[in-house]
Structure to design on (436 residues):
């Protein structure tokens, strides 16, 4: 049966824009202070030891203080150990009394303005100790976090400053915070997220496809949509047949297509269905969203904190609960999973790969720089809809280019990627477009 649900004029070729020549406006960023290691406290250190530590440090301060070191605390420790005399002097500095440490955004010493460990509080930290604040701070352009030692008698002492800017997005980094007048040395492990690296300008042509859609999915050479006409259980379901759309019985609010071309849907009641022959087969479980590649994944009906819904992977007969919480996810033909949480953070999970080398297990999710509302994968390509709107038609569109994101002309609210890596998008008006 051929559908007669066309509500938009057919346009053979639509070019959203030529070549972009300006950079993307700055987006909101977030600093995460993951760990602080005390190499040397600010009390009980002799003048000779101070000179042995800080004269060599001062000689390389441009590298260690102004520039972020890639890697975590252990990597920074290796760098410090290679500076002549510094590591030995730190080892000789003795334990001393602990620093009564607190962090603030203020340039004035005032524990009531502390952002960690809590307002009006401090933390006793000793030489060699590592604390993991997991402190998250929203900022734009740049941020300074000041380190103080609380002193009830003579006034609080300034221990140094962690200065970070948006350009440092992209992986875990470390910096050294120290004050030679006080004798302290801290190594801070941190990360900047929620801001995409400056995109490269690219040219993209989009071909409008007849029809109107709320959702779109592609896989195994097949493209499916949920139309713009809805009912109690969701929207009409359509399968692409050459240059037309075939209406398929049923209704759904989300749809996904496996790498073998099998569609799965979720209706408004959270019921999950798999297409088998010419009918839909009910699958146990409850879902808000579904994704498919070589395997099928869902976001369950229960939230798992503020970052999103519980995550499940289909093992053939039941759903395995996966650690984490997200708002959107996509699965490729190797069962590599990409996901976006409620803060726009992007994650990649390769622990469930079904082919290729064995992957070391641990925390399965790796944070990827960028900010997204929606994510899609197909072939070897990853596409996202960014966190910034591009007019009334939807969000900015990005394609992954190695470790960066290329800004693509256009705007959309839904995105899918076929087996060849070509994107399909739907804008806020329900118009459907694909890469020609």
């Amino acid at each position: 049966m051929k559908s007669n649900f066309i509500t938009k004029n057919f346009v053979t070729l639509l070019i959203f824009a030529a070549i972009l020549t300006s950079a993307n406006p700055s987006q909101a960023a977030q600093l995460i202070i993951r760990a602080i290691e005390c190499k040397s406290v600010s009390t009980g250190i002799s003048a000779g030891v101070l000179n042995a530590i800080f004269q060599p440090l001062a000689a390389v301060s441009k590298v260690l203080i102004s520039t972020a070191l890639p890697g975590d605390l252990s990597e920074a420790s290796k760098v410090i150990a290679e500076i002549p005399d510094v590591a030995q002097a730190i080892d000789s500095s003795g334990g001393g009394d602990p620093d009564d440490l607190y962090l603030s955004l203020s340039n004035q010493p005032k524990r009531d303005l502390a952002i960690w460990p809590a307002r009006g509080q401090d933390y006793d930290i000793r030489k060699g100790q590592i604390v993991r604040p997991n402190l998250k701070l929203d900022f734009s352009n740049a941020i300074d976090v000041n380190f103080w030692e609380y002193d009830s008698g003579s006034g609080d002492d300034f221990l140094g400053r962690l200065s970070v800017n948006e350009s440092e997005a992209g992986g875990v980094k470390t910096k050294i915070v120290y004050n030679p007048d006080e004798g302290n040395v801290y190594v801070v492990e941190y990360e900047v997220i929620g801001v995409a690296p400056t995109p490269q300008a690219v040219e993209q042509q989009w071909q409008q496809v007849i029809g109107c859609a709320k959702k779109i999915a592609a896989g195994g050479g097949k493209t499916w949509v949920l139309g713009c006409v809805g009912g109690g259980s969701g929207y009409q379901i359509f399968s692409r047949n050459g240059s037309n759309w075939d209406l398929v019985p049923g209704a759904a609010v989300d749809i996904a297509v496996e790498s073998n071309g099998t569609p799965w849907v979720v209706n408004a009641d959270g019921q999950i269905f798999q297409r088998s022959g010419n009918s839909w087969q009910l699958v146990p479980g409850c879902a808000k969203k579904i994704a498919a590649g070589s395997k099928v994944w869902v976001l369950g009906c229960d939230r798992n904190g503020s970052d999103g819904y519980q995550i499940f992977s289909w093992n053939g007969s039941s759903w395995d609960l996966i650690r984490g919480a997200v708002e959107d996810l996509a699965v490729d033909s190797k069962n590599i999973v990409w996901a976006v949480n409620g803060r726009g953070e992007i994650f990649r999970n390769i622990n469930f790969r079904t082919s290729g080398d064995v992957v070391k297990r641990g925390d399965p999710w790796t944070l990827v720089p960028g900010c997204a509302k929606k994510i899609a994968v197909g072939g070897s390509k990853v596409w996202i809809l960014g966190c910034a709107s591009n007019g009334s038609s939807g969000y900015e569109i990005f394609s992954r280019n190695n470790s960066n994101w290329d800004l693509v002309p256009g705007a959309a609210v839904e995105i899918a990627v076929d087996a060849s890596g070509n994107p399909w998008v739907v804008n806020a008006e329900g118009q459907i477009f694909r890469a020609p």
